[in-house]
Amino acid sequence: MHQLGQVGLALGLLLSAYGMCAAAVGARTRRPALVESARLTAFGVLAMVVTVNGAMLVALLTDDFSVRYVAENSSSSTPTFFKVLSLWAADDGSLLLWNLILAGYVAAVALRFRRERPLTFPYALSVLFAVQLFYLVLINGPARPFATLAIAPLDGRGPSPLLQNHPLMAVHPPFLYLGFIGFTVPFAFGIAALLVGRGSDHWAALIRRWTLVVWCFLTVGLVLGALWSYSVLGWGGYWAWDPVENVALLPWLVATAFLHTVMLQERRGMARLWNVVLVIGAFALMTFGTFLTRGSVLTSIHTFAESGVGPAYLAFLALVLLGGFGLVAWRASGLREPARLDSLFSREAAIVGNNALLLAATAIILLGTVFPLFVEATTGDQVTVGAPYFRSALAPVFLLLLLLVGTAPLLPWRSTNRQRALRRLRYPAVAAATVMMVSALLGARSVEVAAGLGLATLVLVANGQEILTGMATSRGRGRTGAWRRGQRRYSGLAVHVGLGIFALGIIASSSFAQQTEVTLTEGESTAFAGYQLRYDGLETDQQPHRTVLTTRVTVSSEDSEETWSLGPQLNLYPAASEPIGSPAIRRGPVWDLYASTIGLQDSGGSATFRFYRNPGVNWLWLGGLVMALGGAGAAWPRRGSGPGSRAGTRTRTRELVDAEVG
Amino acid sequence: MSGLRPLHASRSAVLVAMAVLAAAVTLAMVGLRGPAPAQSQEQIVHEIAAGLRCPVCADLSAADSPAPLARQMRTQIADKLAQGDSPEEIRRSFIAAYGSSVLMTPPREGLGRLVYAFPFLALVVALGAGGVLLRRTLRRGPTTAAESRPARLTEADRRRVELALDRLRVEEP
Amino acid sequence: MSVLRGRPVLLTGVIVAVVAVVALLATGLSRGHTIEASPLVGKAAPDFHLQGLDGKPESAVRLSDLRGQVVVVNFWASWCAECRVEQPDLDQTWNRFRDAGVVVVGVDFQDTEGDARAYLAEAGSTYPVVVDTDSTAALAFGLRGVPETFVVDQRGEIVERVIGPVEADRLADRITGLLEGGVR
């Protein structure tokens, strides 16, 4: 298998190199046949990378421990499900998945442009191949998943215990990768637009939908990461502001900014240069994130074991930054368009505010994350910039952002009739003020919390109201008809509604959670937040790959007869020095009761627990889902006939292409 | 219907203004009341531990981490409090053993001040740049307002749209 | 005109910024996983009084009782793989210097006593080993993991902290220096 893998990787590398050159030369010399050959090469690369991933999968499933990667990340007792997951559980293997997804995106671009040929296409194709080439070089050179061991061990080490402890590991990394890698496509078209150089608006229209899809993947990936942290790590929280989480959030923020300013370009022909800057920025931040995560710069649970790929990532990052922003600087004057604004109270002005706030948040997170590096490089001291810093530094930015999300959708494009805007604002404003007052009366002691709850309500009511009144306007055509007619707008508003739910969840769970830590002997009870919690002893379950110790806790509520049982676990893996906990969570619409075992004494005669009562955590998952669905709705091609149809879009694109060529 | 409009609209303005005022007063009062003082020993321990980094985990504070060493830190904090040590003394004892990187946030001295100034700086620069941009683009406005304003929409069309919209508002429950 | 003037300025700006960012990140890369030098080096070692692993009262160790002697304090655990790597070096140091009044003290960190005893029996170590039940010593010494080793001089000051496995030769150099009253 490993020969197949290595040959496949080498062939993929050669094909990518060919594709990159052929597309570039074809574009410069205007030879369509060359470009077409490059386009077809994309499918060849995909085939190679699929083969290679298949080879690794076979090696994992057949316990081929002569392959170092398999020996280090799987074992014969690992359940089949987690053997498959081992494919991306460590650095070298995850690069295989990375290449697979990238090749998938390149092939998707190749398929999408099988007939249309915008001027930017060959350049974009060349950039895509260049990025693929880098990742294939990495996997052929410094990281070598198919390296073999001289003597195959009898059994492998098994995957990292933390990563084989929960099935969410099956979906969190792939979604995150789909999100991260997807930024390559807008980046490629942005670079292509700069290379082509003629002030062309159509590239933004071409990649808006791509970026939306990518944004949805990243949203889902981030939310799944939070869900994993909450369900697995046993600390009662879901987001630790650790550097790796931070760098994953950065491209999301910039992409969100882009998805708003791209409307300025589509509708008003404004912000052309700015949009290129944003897509290059998103890709550069994604590259920066991979460098930080995989380049052994930081240590965290996400950091992969040391590998020699750090300098390669750094070189690539330097190339992306220099090439991308250098090109921007070179072309700046050509793309700069005189923008015109009719009113401060307009959607356009609000979008400028949106970008200012999102980029301020990006800058704060980025600087906070690299600040320890900066301090150590200048003074040699070590400092921590942790969660409390980010919470207080970002609170004002996010509150202002909520204020904007709750008011801006009420503003029309161009200019506003103020009376009308005020009329649309009255219910949301009253609702927001009411929530603020109620939360203050109920004992909210921090301005951020009271303001946050009120502003999240503003977001919910304002955007919900816009959807409802909008749908009502086209009454008589049926609800689906109404939705379809304003699909893009409603979807965007739905994303805002999701954000409102999400924000409520964050504020509630981070401000009103209760927790306690107790040691209970068998049969002993404790009272916590209206519950009686009794420790009923330890159950041991010997599984092939681990020993599961379940501490049985019986919960009775003080205001109902109901009792139920929670079984937080400690899992002993042969490879782990310490037991890995699995919390037990009783999830509810508002309150979660969360139990986590953090110590056992006298062979289970007594156990130390942490209990949490967390409000609003499930709103996070719901809000994330609504945001992703809204994003998907905005990206979904409109059906039916007329100018909004798929065919219509295609003709329109072709017109744009023709106009550009002509 | 058109006779109703000014009244209707101004009522909205009053409502919105009242809501904004109520929100501002509420927030000011919440701010003046200040945060609740930590009551129980457990809360004080949690507060101190939340500011200290768990030394064996990469990212979590000693309050959050389920690691045994973090638990022992919490126990030690509780013991020291019981002995009459002040929170500041307890923090200092951990700094003595681990260095200042044991604090979850950089100390506000020397280079550390930079990182606290930065959020304000970022916000001011970003909003300032946005503001300058808006002013510049707005100032260009008047010269082109004539062509960019109603242009495609005739006055009759506009009135029809407004009427339709108004009917909708009235029909709202 | 403005195009010709603006372009090099912008380009230079981009290049300077990128070089600065990359240089900063490169320092992070070269740093690797170094851990802060302990703020305790050069300071008095925190005292501890811990029970022996065998439970006998005479095997308890109070660090301040060893004033006047060079002490090697080694934090370890039976579950720690790197501790097995350094075990022969520690035994060698103990056997070589015990007659010169040097004490090696093993401090068992977050372990079960059964595992720890089995580990020591297998290794055949003879130097005193104590149990850090509540990790008080570990927290006082600023421990970030095992193994970690502290060399304490005759005056009770920490002169060196070794993160990861110790090497007998380097340890011997340090101890010889201290015994000769020379290099600190």
Largest interface: A-B, 88 and 76 residues
Oligomeric composition of the shown chains: heterotrimer
Major pleated sheet of chain A = 6 strands, antiparallel
Total count of helical runs of at least 4 residues of chain B: 7
The portion of residues assigned to helices of chain B is 55-70%
**SS class of chain A:** alpha+beta
How many beta strands in the DSSP annotation of chain B? 0
Shape descriptor of chain B: elongated
Separation of the first and last Cα atoms of chain A: 52 Å
What's the number of domains of chain B?
2
Describe the model.
The complex is a heterotrimer of chains A (662), B (173) and C (184). Helix content of chain A is 63%, strand content 11%. The radius of gyration of chain A is 27 Å and the shape is globular. Chain A is of the alpha+beta class and 662 residues long. In chain A, helix 1 runs antiparallel to helix 2 (32-61) and helix 8 (184-196) runs antiparallel to helix 9. The longest helix of chain A has 33 residues, at 347-379. Chain B has 2 domains: 41-102, Cytochrome C biogenesis protein (Helicase, Ruva Protein, domain 3); 112-171, no CATH class. Chain B has helices spanning 5-33, 41-50, 68-82, 87-98, 112-139, 141-148, 155-171. Chain B is elongated and about 80 Å long. Chain C is an alpha/beta fold and 184 residues long. Chain C has 2 domains: 1-34; 49-179, Glutaredoxin (3-Layer(aba) Sandwich). Chains in contact: A-B, A-C, B-C.
Short key terms for the protein model shown above:
heterotrimer, A: 662 residues, alpha+beta, disordered C terminus, B: 2 domains, 0% strand, elongated
